[in-house]
Amino acid sequence: LGWIILTRTTLGRAIYAVGGNREAARISGISFVRTKIMAYTIMGLLAGVAGIVLTGRLNSANALMAGGAELQSIAAVVIGGTNLFGGEGGVIGSVIGAFIMGTLGNLPKKMFSATLRLGMRLNS
């Protein structure tokens, strides 16, 4: 859905244009302020939805329950190929970066639990 919005709608193309070169976007008639307000509004709405989903998943609400998730999100997007300075990147690369981060996060747990089980078997 995010890929369709960013590549097929006027707002998505405006977001890419403003992120790539704000001055060129202004000269071509794209309102920087309007695009920025719309982007922040959509991101705020999506953050609220994510908070509701996380609250439902954990059956509790705490302002600090997703602490540190923002850094992992930024790392996943950068691993996916998005430029931190704007104008480059895409949704598919960000999803691939998230999969890589998830795999790297779970790999030590799997390796440690296998080592622990092997040690317990050898001790028995």
Automatic annotation (TrEMBL):
<keyword id="KW-1003">Cell membrane</keyword>
<feature type="transmembrane region" description="Helical">
    <location>
        <begin position="37"/>
        <end position="56"/>
    </location>
</feature>
<protein>
    <recommendedName>
        <fullName>ABC transporter permease</fullName>
    </recommendedName>
</protein>
<dbReference type="GO" id="GO:0005886">
    <property type="term" value="C:plasma membrane"/>
</dbReference>
<keyword id="KW-0472">Membrane</keyword>
<dbReference type="Pfam" id="PF02653">
    <property type="entry name" value="BPD_transp_2"/>
</dbReference>
<feature type="transmembrane region" description="Helical">
    <location>
        <begin position="91"/>
        <end position="107"/>
    </location>
</feature>
<keyword id="KW-0812">Transmembrane</keyword>
<dbReference type="GO" id="GO:0022857">
    <property type="term" value="F:transmembrane transporter activity"/>
</dbReference>
<dbReference type="InterPro" id="IPR001851">
    <property type="entry name" value="ABC_transp_permease"/>
</dbReference>
<keyword id="KW-1133">Transmembrane helix</keyword>
